[in-house]
Amino acid sequence: MKHEKQVINLSFVIALMLATLSVNTSGSIFSGITERYNPFYSSAEAAQQNSSPLNTESHINTLVGEGKASFYANQFHGRTTANGETFNMNKLTAAHPSLPFGTWVRVTNMRTGKDVVVRINDRGPFVKGRIIDLSIGAAKELGILKTGTAQVKLETIGSSNRRSSAS
């Protein structure tokens, strides 16, 4: 009786492992989960993909919030971001307190209507009342270099398929 339970448990564990391996190798269920949901997603994997948010598939936009955006640049250029990438102030990236790394976000300047799509690769901002810190490249696109801040709307951009490599 005691050995029967162990054989059943061992059989169950082996069956579970085989099922997991077959699903992972086909990628049918788990494809894309790592970059979408893991906030500690490997920076090497993120850098290799460096995917573009735009493709021909239908997009799903989700409003994240509205508030004040700022930018950060010179003193952080070349330093390591929270996800392990090297910060390049000229790329279209941003820091957000909670969105998963690799998330693509459309940032719209509420005053001018200009928008820019950035990829979250860092944590911040660390100033009360701000919802996102943009790279200087993104700040240029929004036209906020002179003012330093702007009221913005944030929308995540997603699609049903894995994004194509570009950028």
Residue-averaged pLDDT = 75
Q: What general form does the structure show?
A: globular
CATH fold annotation of the largest domain: Barwin-like endoglucanases
Q: How would you spell out the order of helices and strands?
A: HHHEEEEEHE
Distance between the termini: 62 Å
- Class of the largest domain, according to the CATH hierarchy? Mainly Beta
Given the helix and strand composition, which structural class is it? Answer: alpha/beta
Helix content: 25-40%
Strand content bin: 25-35%
The largest beta-sheet arranges its strands as 1-5-2-4-3-6
Notes on the protein architecture:
With 167 residues, the protein is of the alpha/beta class. It has two domains: 2-31; 43-159, RlpA-like domain (Barwin-like endoglucanases), CATH 2.40.40. Helix content is 26%, strand content 28%. The protein is built from four helices and six strands; from the N terminus they run H-H-H-E-E-E-E-E-H-E. It has helices at 2-26, 33-37, 43-49, 136-142, and strands spanning 59-71, 93-95, 104-109, 115-122, 130-134, 149-159. Strands 1-5-2-4-3-6 form a six-stranded mixed beta barrel. Strand 3 (104-109) and strand 4 (115-122) form a beta hairpin. The radius of gyration is 20 Å and the shape is globular. The N and C termini lie far apart (62 Å). Residues 20-50 and 159-167 have low confidence and may be disordered.
